[in-house]
Design a protein that fits this description.
2 helices; about 10% strand
Length: about 55
């Protein structure tokens, strides 16, 4: 499903994958993650932390 969403998003932009259902979400970065993906995941992580307060 991750690759499907990546293709549907266009411009090869994807955020994820994320593991949900645990006590807290887990943000996973692969070894092939680009700088853009790292920045996007960091922004999502910050938003999650702010929302959980």
């Amino acid at each position: 499903s991750y690759n499907l969403l990546k293709t549907a998003a266009g411009n090869n932009i994807a955020i994820g994958p994320m593991l949900l259902g645990a006590a807290r979400p887990v943000h996973v970065l692969t070894a092939s993650a680009t700088v853009r993906r790292i920045v996007n995941m960091t922004a999502l992580l910050v938003a999650d932390v702010i929302a959980s307060r």
